[in-house]
Structure formats: C-alpha cells, structure tokens
Amino acid sequence: MASDKNVQSVRGMNDLLPGQVEYWQRVEAALREVSQRYGYREIRTPVVERTELFHRSIGEQTDIVEKEMYTFTDNNGDSLTLRPEATASCVRAGNEHGLLYNQTQRLWYVGPMFRHERPQKGRYRQFHQFGIEALGWAGPDIEAEIIAVGERLWRSLGIEGLNLEINTLGSATARARYRDALRAYLSDHVDALDADSQRRLERNPLRILDSKDPGTQALLNDAPSLSEFLEDAEHAGFERLQQLLAAVNIGFSVNTHLVRGLDYYTGFVFEWTTDQLGAQGAICAGGRYDGLVEQLGGHSVPAAGFACGLERLIELVTLQQGKTLIQSPRVFLAALGETAELEAAQRAERLRDAGVDVQMNCGQGNLKRQLRRADNCGADLAVIIDEETANTSAVKVKPLRGQGEQTSVSGEQLFEAVQTYLKKSD
Ligand code: HAM
C-alpha cells in the first residue's frame, strides 16, 4: 500500500547518530579495558532465546515476564523471546558448553536488551547493558571485586556522584521465613497498601519493599526487618563484604529495603543510582544468584554479577563532561580542476597511509565553497591543490582553527608540515 508518510522507528527503540556514537565508543572502550584489568573475558550470546529460559530464571511473577517480554512464535512453532537481560543467557551458555563444570568463569558482555516498558527519558524498549558475571565463587571477596569493577569504570569515565546501596536477601530459608512474617504484618494493614502492593501481597510480598508509594513506605517503617531473620553466617558474610569495600575506599550505604525485580537473587544485592537523571536513576544493579545455574539444568554453582544501563550511563557522561567527544577528520583536501583532483587523491591516500584522518572534497566546487565544506566538517587543516600547485608539485596548507597563516610547501614536505601543525593544535 503506497503511503506518503515516512516509516518511523519503533517506539522506545533509538537510532544512535554520529555525534552520539562517539560517546558510546568511548564508554565501550573503557568497559573493555576495565573488564580486562580484572580478568573478565567477553561472551557473546544470541539476542533471541527460548522463552522458557526467562520464565525459569527471571521468574513467572516478575514484571518482566508478566508483561514486558517481546515473545513470538517462529515458523517452527517454537516460542522465542528477545532477551530482556543477559544473566540467564550467560548461565545457559555456561551450562551448554560445559564452562561451569569444575571451572570458574569471569565473564562480561555488552549488547541490546528488550523490554516492553512504557518509554520515557532513560527508559527504552531496546536498551543496552554492559554486564559482568562471576560464576563459581561463593564468598564476599568476589562480591567486593564486582563492586570494584563498577567503581573503576565510573572513575575511568570521570563520573562522579553515584550512590551505592547494598543489602542482603539472605538464604532461601531465611527469606521464606521473612516472607511469611512480612505477609502476616502487611495483611493486617491491607487497606493502607497501594494497589500494586495489594496485588503482590500473596505471591511476592518482598517486592512491596520496593514500592514508591508514600503510604506503603510509611507502613514498612514498622514492618519486621529481613536482617532479624538472617543466620549468623549470613550476617558474618555481609559484614566481611563491608570490610572489604572499606579496605579499598568504596563508599556505600546499607538499605535494608533494597530488593530486586528479578527472582533469581539469593544473597547480596546492590544498586548504583544517581539523582542527576530524573526518575530513571538506576545506573547499575546486580547481586548474588546462587541457585540459577542449577535451576537451568547445571550443577550447583554460586554466582554473582551486575548489569549497567548504557543509555543512562552515557547520558551521565554527556551531562558531566559536555560535548567534547565529536570526532572530526584532521585534514580536508581541497582540489581545484581535473589534474589537481588526481594529485589530491594520491596525496590523500599517502597521508592516510601515514595515519592521518583525511576527508576529500567530493563534488567539486570553487575554492570558497570547498573551504566552507572544510570548515563544516570540523577539520583542523585544509590542504589545497589547484592547477598551478599541481603543476609545480607544491601544495597550500591552510590552518582552519586558531592563529596560523596559510603557507605553501613542496609535496615532499607535506606530511611533515601536516604533522607539525596538528601537533601544535593538540
Ligand atoms: P536490571 O536491574 O533489570 O538487572 O537491569 C540493570 C540495569 O539496566 C538497570 O539498572 C538500568 O540501568 C538498565 N535498564 C533496565 N531496564 C531498562 C530500560 N527499559 N531502559 C534503559 N535502561 C534499562 C538485570 O538486568 C540483571 N541481569 C543484572 C544482573 C547481572 N544481576 C546479576 N548479574
């Protein structure tokens, strides 16, 4: 059907345009470097997984599985889902390839995730996560390491002002006892709960701790606390983690109401937030998930990790560091006339061979026009070849920013002249 309306992108799924991509590349380079510094290795898993994977890991009663997944049936009749997160995929791949059998793994990944949420600033339907997963370690030492990876990433990006909150959800037994106590307490005050919390009361009362409703929060002030239900060993582990964080100067606060929206967490949980991005302030979150490997068909393997929302992280980098990352070619090559164009094409290739970023004038035009293009593309220097200079094998070098004067140099001196000027302007 013909229509004169432009085809638009899918709501909540963004294009990343030149000018934005430079920030992404900078952040991606930093997260690669930091992961490597701690011995984490990259894993790449498919964007599409069997739907069952997420039902069995994230949990049937979570918002993600209940209402946010992009699920479809393929031509074979299999139910498939665009991954809403990648922890489950890492565990699936680990089990499938025997990576978790008598081995430990430090893994990292980056890539698009999909959740059918209501889009707003900082919340998208296709978004990107950087994540790390440490599989095979049970102790607080690895938990402290994971936090240190995050802290180093913020530092390497020059990000300031993130708040780290930590909590422990305890063992499954402790949590089950606490769940009963919390449900009993809240059931006595059911009318004071917000509608969402009332819905969660029977099946998932711990998620009520997360409620943003002031009435519900007031009620929670007097509710039993999870820490009363923890075993001694769980208290000791959480204490040790705090000592380890303090030893490497990582600031944090304990928030006993911090719970997570995915069911697989079993002990330590945490979240870095900022108040600089409005409502969507969660930058990075994670925790321990000791039951998941077994739940997905593997052995019993302790594990912990986090995922960081790149759109939010990059928004913060842009906000705090300004727009200084635009990549422009360093040299613009202007050519006037057919002989000059041949000469310019050769000179451009030679400069590129030597590692200089060069943009050629394409589409001809007089000198004024070509110099306007040079200016618009952000180059530092224009090299001008006209019929006269082409015949004498000399070229003109014109600085486009700052003070310098236009000079004329021989072809052999061009590379040196360019280098000298670019060094000066750095
Ligand atoms: P999550 O809390 O669901 O955890 O997501 C982690 C981060 O992804 C959030 O803190 C946020 O920055 C970003 N994020 C989530 N949803 C959106 C969205 N719709 N738009 C933009 N950003 C979003 C997980 O996904 C777990 N897999 C983390 C983990 C790894 N736990 C252990 N290992």
Strands of the largest sheet, in order across it?
Answer: 1-5-6-11-10-9-7-8
Largest sheet: 8 strands, mixed
Give the tally of β-strands.
16
Rounded to an integer in angstroms, the radius of gyration calculated over CA atoms is 28 Å
Instruction: Give the DSSP E fraction (strand runs of 2 or more residues).
Output: 15-25%
Through-space gap between termini: 54 Å
Shape: elongated
Low-confidence stretches: none
SS-derived structural category: alpha+beta
Give the count of helical stretches.
15
The portion of residues assigned to helices is: 25-40%
Return the average pLDDT rounded to an integer.
92
What would you say this structure looks like, in words?
This protein is α+β, with helices and mostly antiparallel strands and 426 residues long. The protein has 15 helices and 16 strands. The chain has helices at 21-37, 51-57, 63-68, 87-96, 140-156, 172-187, 195-203, 214-221, 232-247, 292-295, 310-321, 338-353, 367-376, 387-392, 414-425; strands at residues 41-42, 48-50, 70-73, 79-82, 105-114, 126-135, 163-168, 253-254, 268-273, 282-288, 303-309, 331-336, 358-360, 381-386, 394-399, 407-410. The two termini are 54 Å apart. The mean pLDDT is 92. The structure holds histidyl-adenosine monophosphate. Histidyl-adenosine monophosphate binds at residues 85, 87, 115, 117, 123-124, 127, 129, 131, 133, 261-262, 282-287, 289, 305-307, 309, 311-312.
